[in-house]
Every structure is written in C-alpha cells, then in structure tokens.
Write a structure and sequence with these properties.
It is a single chain. Helix content is 40%, strand content 14%. It is an alpha/beta fold. It has one domain: Uracil-DNA Glycosylase, subunit E, CATH 3.40.470. The strands form two sheets. The protein has a five-stranded mixed β-sheet with strand order 1-3-2-6-7, with helices on both faces. The protein is globular.
C-alpha cells in the first residue's frame, strides 16, 4: 500500500550526522512534498552556526530559488537594510524559511509566489525544527503570517500581536513581525515608508534583547 502524501515527512530524509552542513546536504534530496518537482533546488537556511537570532520566513522566492540562498532577493535586501538600521549584524544571524522549496504559478513569463498549504508546511517543518535545535538561538523572529502560525499556532495574528515577545519552548524569546515582502507590496511610498519604520522598530526590540547578557 502506498503512503498517503500527507503522512510524508522530511524526517525520512534526515542524516545520521547532526550538523547544519549534514542537514543542508540531506535537504537537497528532500521529496517530502511535491514542491521539489517545480522548485529549482532546495533552499536551506544559512548564517552563523551559533547565531543568537534566527529569522524565519515563509518560503524562498524566485531569486532565492535560482541562487540556492535564502533572503537574497528584494525582500532580503530590505531585511539587510532594516537590520543595519536596527543595529543587528546580519552576519551574526541565521535566516531560513518554513518551506524550503519555491512554490509558484506561471504568469506570462514570470513565476509568481503561491502560498504553501498546510500539508507542505507540515512535511517541511522537521527541517526548521532541526535548524532551531542546532543553532539554539536566543531569539526567533517570525517574518509574516505563515511563519508565525507555523511556530506560534494557527490562531496567531501578526496584525494584532506583532512586536510582542511570547513564551515558547523553541527559544527564550520569540516574536512575529511582518515579512519584508509585504512592505515592498505597499500601495504607495508613504505607506511603504511607514511600514518600514514599524518593521525597524520591531527589530530594535530584538536588538535590545540581544544586548542583554
């Protein structure tokens, strides 16, 4: 009897050796959900091995899918700038996504982001849990609703609870804020500027926690 796709988990692809490199190499062959069929490659997390803060987004975008590196597209560049403004060294962070393959649909010649479903998120979650367990961050920052609901529960609303530190078994501090891509999608420059300022304010709260010893 064939296994129901909803029962497939990334754990089936876990390596014997427990290191970020071993997990990254193993994830390259992950077929726990169907997204590997359309994505160019697995985009695993990257950053400092003992990063004090882990940023978790939804999934890689077009540029990330092509390059194999997380947060290198427009949203990643906005995150870099905001981190610098907040006083957080990007090289001392770890960035990753809930889902490791780019889910997209064609629109003309472009590949447009499509939100991952619950089955895809569940199948991929073990990779994220492994990353968090290996890095052991002081702070986890969920970027956007998909990441927040994956780690803080399906009822979590970023619009109501952003910028608040919450209790979690995953790390001493966990917070959710908007995904940088949502700032880029703002309808006008004034809104974009306002949203970016709020985003930086959230990151400054993280910087304050990181400064505590």
């Amino acid at each position: 009897m064939s296994k129901d796709k909803s029962e497939t988990s990334a754990k089936e692809f876990f390596p014997a050796r427990k290191s970020l490199k071993a997990f990254r190499d193993a994830a390259a062959d992950c077929k726990a959900c169907d997204l590997w069929e359309r994505g160019t490659q697995t985009v695993f997390g990257e950053g400092a091995r003992r990063a004090e803060v882990v940023f978790v987004g939804e999934q890689p975008g077009n540029e990330e899918d092509l390059s194999g590196h997380p947060f290198v597209g427009p949203a990643g560049r906005l995150l870099d700038d905001a981190l610098a403004e907040a006083g957080i060294d990007r090289s001392q962070t770890y960035v990753t996504n809930v889902v490791k393959h780019f889910k997209w649909e064609p629109r003309g010649k472009r590949r447009i982001h499509k939100k991952p479903n619950a089955t895809e998120i569940k199948a991929c979650r073990p990779w994220l849990e492994a990353e968090i367990n290996l890095v052991k961050p002081k702070v986890i920052v969920c970027l956007g609703a998909t990441a927040a609901q994956a780690l803080l529960g399906p009822q979590f609303k970023v619009t109501k609870q952003r910028g608040q530190f919450l209790e979690s078994t995953l790390a001493p501090y966990i917070m959710a804020t908007v995904h940088p891509s949502s700032i880029l999608r703002a309808p006008d420059d004034e809104t974009r500027h306002t949203e970016r300022r709020h985003f930086v304010d959230d990151l400054k709260k993280v910087a304050h926690v990181l400064s505590k010893r």
